[in-house]
Amino acid sequence: MCLAIPGKIVEIIDAENFIAKVEVGGVRRGVNIGMLDDIKIGDWVLVHVGFAMSKIDEKEAAETLRTLQELGAFQEELEQFQTSIN
Tell me, what CATH number does 26's domain have? Predict the structure, then answer.
């Protein structure tokens, strides 16, 4: 299953190439933020296949994470995030 999962922007790695470090469940990976405007450290985004697809607020991120955990989907998505290429 491939879902978009919430992650928090913790670092802008390469602003020119739109790459930011996102944290999901304690795991940090580089993702492309080029599809979004006005992204800054501390923002929450939905991440899918290495791209930040949309910006969300912290409440929506928490609700989405809770729902994914209830569905039993979070662990699988987190494992895929852990093994993805930076």
Answer: 2.30.30.140
Nearest alpha carbon to residue 45 among 25, 61, 66, 65 = 61
Which residue has tokens 């992204």? 39
Asked whether the beta carbons of 54 and 46 are under 8 A apart, the reply is: yes
pLDDT tens over the chain, length 86 residues: 467 889 999 999 999 999 999 998 888 999 999 999 999 999 999 998 899 999 999 999 999 888 877 877 656 666 666 666 55
DSSP 45-80: EEEETTEEEEEE-HHHHHHHHHHHHHHT-HHHHHHH
Domain that holds residue 41: 5-83
